[in-house]
Every structure is written in C-alpha cells, then in structure tokens.
Amino acid sequence: MSETNSAAAEPAAPHRYTAAMAADIEARWQDFWDAEGTYEAPNPTGDLAGDPVLAAKPKKFIMDMFPYPSGTGLHVGHPLGYIATDVFARHQRMTGHNVLHTLGFDAFGLPAEQYAVQTGTHPRSSTEANMENMKVQLRRLGLGHDKRRSFATIDPDYYKWTQWIFVQIFNSWYDKDADRARPISELVAQFESGERATPDGRPWSALDAAERADILGEYRLAYASDAPVNWSPGLGTVLANEEVTADGRSERGNFPVFKAKLRQWNMRITAYADRLLDDLDALDWPEAIKLQQRNWIGRSEGARVDFPVGDAGAITVFTTRQDTLFGATYMVLAPEHELVEKIVPSAWPESTHDVWTGGHATPAEAVGAYRKQAASKSDVERQAEAKDKTGVFTGAYATNPVSGERVPVFIADYVLMGYGTGAIMAVPAHDSRDFAFARAFELPMRCVVEPTDGRSTDPAEWDDAFGSYDARIVNSTGTDISLDGLGVVDAKARITEWLAARGIGEGTVNFRLRDWLFSRQRYWGEPFPIVYDEDGIAHALPESMLPLELPEVEDYSPRTFDPDDADTQPETPLSRNADWVNVELDLGDGVKRYRRETNTMPNWAGSCWYELRYLDPHNSEKLVDPAIEQYWMGPREGQPHGGVDLYVGGAEHAVLHLLYARFWSKVLFDLGHISSVEPFHKLYNQGMIQAFVYRDSRGIAVPATEVEERDGGYWYQGEKVSRVLGKMGKSLKNAVTPDEICAEYGADTLRLYEMAMGPLDVSRPWDTRAVVGQYRLLQRLWRNVVDETTGEVTVVDTEPGEDTLRALHKAIDGVTQDMAAMRFNTAIAKVTELNNHLTKTGGPVSRAVAEPLVLLIAPLAPHIAEELWRRLGHSGSVVHQDFPVADPAYVVDEAVTCVVQIKGKVKARLEVSPSISDEELEALALGDAAVVAALDGAGIRKVIVRAPKLVNIVPA
Hints:
The protein is α+β, with helices and mostly antiparallel strands. It has 31 helices and 31 strands. The strands form 8 sheets. Strands 22, 23, 24, 25, 26 and 27 form a 6-stranded mixed beta sheet that branches. Helix 1 (19-36) crosses helix 22, helix 22 (738-745) packs across helix 23 (747-756) and helix 25 (802-820) packs antiparallel against helix 26.
C-alpha cells in the first residue's frame, strides 16, 4: 500500500528526532553496548563469585525459541517474540536481576540442504551467510543479547555434545523399579550376576556378542530396529509421526508419505510417558499446550488379552473395555502387524464369505494387495470416521479366551501399529467403527452391555452401536466366569483378575505415544557417533573421538524418487563417501575395521538441549559445569523441576521440540548430569503478525505494496483484486522487512509498534501506515527533554505540580505491573498518557519527571532512552539503572465518586476519599440533603455500603 504518512516527508528542525537521527543514535549505542559488554551475564563461578553485590542479585534466564537462518532473512513478523523477551529482560535487569538472555541458531536441517542441491553451494556456506545476515538484522533492533554465549548447532564444538548426549542415551536403560534411567553397564552387571535372567534362561557368559547386543537393544534408550516408518520418496528420507500432515503428506515439501519397514534409530521416549504426563502439572505453561501433550501421550488404562491363533502363538490386544470380551466376534490386525505373515494359510478356509476375500484367489494374494493399498494412506486418513471401512480376511481364526469361540482375523487400515499392540478385539455391538465394519463384512454381533435407550438387545435391529460406561453387563457367562448383572467398573475388575489368574492377560496401561524415530537420510545433520563391527554390532564412539565431523561430499542430496513410488528404499549422501564410512579404529580392544552409521540425526536433536549450552558455551571438558547449571536452571521455590524462567515461542512446537526437549532433560537428570528435571519452567506463546494477501482473478498473490485502495475496493495494475488476512511471507508477496521500517522510522519505533499492536499472545494484522503513531510518541518524548532548534536539554530542577506527580506515579505503578505480566501494549499506553500529559501541561519538564519517564520507556525503546539519559547528565548506561518505584500516596485518586441509591434509583453523588470506611460513608450518605429529602421521613430497613463507590438505601 502507498505510504500516506511518510516520516521522511516531514520538515525537520536541526535537532528534531528524525529517522536519520534515530539511525545515528541507534548505531552509536549498539557499538557502545558491544564494546562495554553491557549485556554480559556473569556466571556463578567467575565474576559473580567474587562480587557480593552481583551474587546477591536474583537470577533470571530468558530464552527465545531457536531461529532457523533462512536465506530470505527476517520479515517484521519474525522478531515479535525476540523484541518481547528483550523488553522483559531489560525490565528484569532494571529491577535488580542477573539476566541471561542470548540467541543462537538452529542451523542443521532440510532447507539448507535443498538449497545446496539446487545451487551447488555447500550447506555450511549458505547457512553461515544467512546467519550473518540475520545477525545484522537482529543487532539493528537493539536486542540485548549476551553475544559471548551465542552459537550455532552446526559448530563442531556444539554438536560434539549433541553426539555425547546421544552416547549417554545409547548407553542407558530405563529401570522401571527405580523409575529412572541407569547406565547400561549396571544392566549388564545384573545379567552377569544372574540377578536378571536372560530371555531364554541361558547364562550371560554363554551368549555370543551378537546375542548380548540384541538383548541390550531391547533395553537401550537409543536403539536401532526394523519397524514401520513414514517413508517419503519425494524427499528421500523417513519422517517422524509429528512431521506428517493430517492428509498424509510431508510437512516439508508436501510430498506423499508411505508406510515402509526400515532399520532406523529410535529414542525410547515411551519409557518416560508417565513422567512426561505427571510433570506437566508443575509447569507454568498455557493449558492448551499441556492438553496437546497429554493427548499426544494418550494414557489409557485397560487390560492386555491374549487370543490364541493355532500354532502361530497368540494375538495380544490392549483394550479399555475388557468387560465386553464376550462380545468380541472377530479380530482386526494392522496391515503391518508382524503376525500377519505367520497366520495366513495357503488357501481360503471352507465357507469363507465372498465379501471377506476382496475377490482374491488366496489369502496371501488378498493380504499382499491390501497391504500395498494401506501403505499409501496416512494414519489420519486410515482413522477417518466418515470413510468406508475396508479390510480383508487373513484366512486365520483366533480363539476368544472367555467364550472359546473361533473368531475370524482380518486386517484393516483403521487399526494402526502406532497404538496399543496393533491388534483389536472387535466388539461391533458397542463400537461404532467395529459396527460399520461388521455390517460391511456381514459379521456377527452380540450385545453384552444392556441398552439404556429403549432399544432391544438384538444388534441386527440397530442403526449404530450402543456404548455406555453406565449400564449392566449381559450375555456374558462362560464355563467358569459370569459378568452378567455387574456394572462396567466391577465387570472390568473381575475379568481382569480372571485373565491374570490364567496367565492370558493382565491389567495394564497403554499410551498413544510412540518411540521417537531419530534417523534421517540426509547430509546436513549431526552424524551419529556409532560404528558397526564386522558382525553388525553397534558401538558408540568414546568421548575422545568426538566430535565426529561431517565429511565433505560432492552430492549433498539424498536419493529421491518418484513421489508416488512406495516401493523404494533410502540412499543416504554419507553412504557415498567410502573413505569416511569404512574406518579402522581402536575402541579399547585393538585396531579393528568398522563401518560408520550413514544416517544423520533429525534437525530436532540440536534444539533438545541448547538451553544448557547457553549456560556454559565454551566448556570443552563438560556438557555444562554443575554449579553453573544449578545456578541458572536448578529447582527452587515455585519451580520444583527447575528450568528456564521464561521461554517464548510459537505454539506449533507443542508435540515436537517441547516434548523431545523434556525427554532429553529427564534422561540427563536421571544420569546425574543436570539438576533440572524440566528444561522450561514458564512457557509463553506469542501470537503471529499477519498481513493482508491480495490475489488476482487467477488466485495468484500480487505485490501488496503496489495495491491501491479506492472506491471501496483494491486494485493492482488496473485490475480489481481480493484481500484476505493471512500469513506474512515472501511467497505471498506481502512481506515487510524490519530493515525498511528501521530506515523509515528507526528501530525504537519498530519495537514500540510491534509491542503496541495488541496483547502479545494474540495474532494481529500489520499496518505500515500505523507505525507513524509510535514514531510521533518518540518525537514528543524527545521534545519534552531536548530543544529541537538548539539541541539543548530543556528540563528544569523545579518540583512538579500535584497533577503531574499523580500522572507520573500512576504511570510508574501501571507500567511496573504491565511489564511483569508482559502486557507491553498497555504499558506503552500508560507511557504515552504520561508523555501527553507533559506535552499538554506546557513549559519545561521537571527533571523529577523527565528522568523516570526515560527509565519507564527504556526497556521498550532502549536507544533513545540511552541518548536522553546521557544528555540528562548521567554517565552510566540506562540498562542497569533502577526501574522507577511508585509512591503509593500519589497512586490512589484524591477523591472518587460515590453513588447513593434509594430503591435502586440514584439520588445523590458524593465526592469521597478512596480510603473512606463503610461507617463513615454511610453517615455521610444519610446526612446528604438530597437523600434526606428523598426519604421524606420514611424509616430505613437496610443500608448496603460498598465503600468507596456505592451506598444503597432500602426504606422501611
């Protein structure tokens, strides 16, 4: 849109606050802050230990979510959170805190790799260039970061410790009895001593190396396994569940995603499911984020039940309704279930319904075709309630353990390997999905929960299943157990006890959460510190061999395929560097040949622990000094699990980064490396800065800056275009860079505008034309201190008047409360109100008001505050000045209006002291002439007093 209020168009007095003056002031103070180390936060083991004043300060650790160094740089939506944390950090410094606030870069990942593939530029070169560009942009905003502590995840000195943490996780197991992780060496000692039996009962000493490795792999918190994964041929890599969209496509690139079985590294995050749930209660997080994590973890209580399947063993199901076991008339396996191939017979059993076979000649043919079909669907698509239920009979039958009945076993895509055991007992009379499947495949139904809605007990007459937790059990009597007449709760308890006594089931807890898929078929990521010996056994590299650095390769791209071709396999870039892959190493038992792992870690790895590196970024001997970690992140009053004091970022990371980081923290805590159980105590989700998107008749976005508004519509090059509020971005042609706004108005104006647009946690539309309002505020502030013609300071050393003192202290009181609550928009409104009061009063401003006013705005507009503070005669930086404190005597109003009502109608208004008592106010109201006249001698039944604003008189 065309600029109608351009600051550059205004005539400027010689010493007027203009964009040019702002640019000069801001550059000078940014240089000063860098030279003086103004924002450097001392650690407890250095200067802090020898300085009692610093040591007495409370600490405050404030963090932003890691930025990714995009090649397009920042638009004005990106720094919203960074400015907010900077404002808060500055206020905390001015209220006596030792503040740690810095920013690094999450620089591994797919975008840089894809750019390298397209341009032939090494990912490191393009990423480092992007980081330098972003650093310039961020510096221009005046962000008060401790630059000594900054780093990028691609720095070998950083990812050495990412690899080291992986080794700790690999060399750990979860002891359920102790409810914590322990070193794998302690598990080995249990096997060696016989305290813990091996799976087949043989002594540990009788097992070969491969057998021992297989057993330990079932316990390790980081393990490799052949498992169903999300394979994206178009990207050439596998993806975690959280990286797949609801419509079964890759979050990055929007490619189709298929199910495939591959050997991949996983993190056993499921071992921590209960703790990840329970510890949410003590965190100061938005309830919406907690709910998302609880739902993602998905804890449910029920029972495990075994259904025998001939010589193949048993199908194990998890059910939360074990009370309905007598109603199970068929079973369904996920297409990927490992038992499918074992139970499929060579031919269809006699009397197999035609609708069960899918038109195939043999069970193997039917199962193979259906598996291929299911692999092309996402988990969300497979579970969609509205879709038609599909499936195919495996040809096998299982035995219902309570009734002894043979029940057919199907495979169907609405059952997932990602939940429970990948198998269900189908009770069609009491589950809508099973009901629909049973109707489609002409399967029997049995009512075992008595309907309470008036319907009969014959499911053949029903339109849908009947589900209830508040009904009696019926038709559920076997040879040695009966549930008939029991309520659901009692029936569940009885059947669970019965199953356990016979060794065919037990009460258990299940989680929706799956182990974290940790392998990526990419180049631009952390190499795994893992090598394989000639027997294929995985070995972790010792710390002395870390970091294992990325080798140079000619081709950075993983091999990609036709996006729709599910029958493909990953090929990693690292696998093409034979000299790097095949090595001779001495891991403590002599030099041997090994093969390196050629997958890399996901981009989430580096952000799982970066808060710890901020504490002690140059420590080459330890992950973090224990005393430093305890000081900044250890548990304390109100923060029983420790963690960062304030963490600000987008809500989109609820079940990705935030869940993963919590898991890593808990493992490191269990192993004694850190004192904080949780990484982030307080989480704040900022909203989004949006922008209008203009589209032509083809639906193509057109440049927003070239659109004209006229005649109630919007026009681009003579064509009318549509307008809708949406995201800001280069592809939508509506991005506004902070560089543009800084050049036009200055960084302080941009900071103020972004903070003034509305509540920080709410999305709001960008309007360049409105920026000028905050520019005017700074100009008026400048004029209240500096003569625009001479440049001289105009403040006087006289006492301000009563009205001005009240305006000042009310502003101080309000801004103090708003800053603590991160209500920066209302804080700015209060500063503006005070500044306007001084402007309207006229005449020189008292120093006693000007100086606190400068301090009030300092966290929000630090450059102009520094300049005015220096011009007011002070030598130190405003950054570490004390924030003003309100005088309570001036905060309360001199008088408030009290309304006096009789029978609910206002009869008088009294000007009274805010501190007046109920008794005093009642006497004053009853003595008022207007009230006396209104009562006209009538008696009084009741007087209701709400001092100081209301008296309600009820006549007799």
